[in-house]
Amino acid sequence: MKFERLNFADKSEREYFDQRVLSDEHSFVQQTTKWAESIKDIHGDEPVFCFVEDEDLFLGASLYLFRTEFGNILTSNVQAPTLGTLAYEGDPSRRQEAYDHLLSEVVQFARAQDCVTVSVLSNPFHDEETVLKDAFEPDCGIESFVQTITIDEWFDEEGNVTFEDYNRRTNLSRNVSDARDNGFDVEVSSSMADLEQWYEEIHAARIEELGGTPLPKPMFVNAFEIMADQTLFLVARKDGDLVGGDFCVYDEGGILENVMLSSRSEYFEEGVNFVLIDELLRWCFRNDIRLYDWQSSNPPRGGVYRFKEQWGSDERPFDHYTRILDREAFRDIQSTDRDEVLSAFENHFLAPYHTLVNDEYTIETKEYVSNVTD
Hints:
Helix content: 25-40%
Largest sheet: 14 strands, mixed
């Protein structure tokens, strides 16, 4: 079984990697080199895409090397909507062998690059947690989840909605009906001007209302340009004014990832988000999307979780696994001012928060980790 690291400057190698990765029907477009092209320059990440293969199998890994003054990390979770590290195609009986080989090479590479930690993610659509955990031997981790909708469980063959709570008297059906009556116009936009207006006036403003940090603007702009045939930007207008939008990415295998839904808060009561999701699901049906993934929710059982739940979302588990390669350097990071650390590793996964803050070398649920405080 041969191990190779992708020469990212070689277009033919990038195309080969993407083709093999997307041969796994459960892979995400964020595991491709196109996504890497969209995000790598935002914080200076170096794509480390590698694989093992022979005549019977292919296993690819999508990782990023990130250098900071506190030490380097090798991670698959660079920007918020990234999911999955590995893509496997081949003999199921050889999966463990392939994972063992590739991940041993990954850890060896991370050590050679003086990485403090190396982290990988499991795929929520693969039953790979045991294989991945056995091969990677993590020191700590987070048991997380995503919420998803299987499109053919929502519609019949003619495109009529069959989801029960949509067709009887429920909060969902009333909210969608009211939103439809409130005069929103929803359409797919290919306008960069719309995207920039939505980002500045709606997404950034809404996240700041919530006391958070907006996702980096170049992530949206670059993906919109580089991945034009794999992005969906749905916008809602009222009386001609842009009042909401939903930015998504998808692949030809039929998995659509909801990167960010943001609307003006003054239109929440009128149902702007309900009409956007209603139209988005219909777009998925018309465009042969199999799975709609609108990611995880924070807090794990909060209002956003319940909003997704009422649409019939299934919860699928996935895990963050981390190995601490340099304990001394990690202890130095733990003793550094927390705000400095969070700023240095912005939009990157250094280690589970309970490990960073409480020195707990365990694998815990997302709910447990979300309640950890300094």
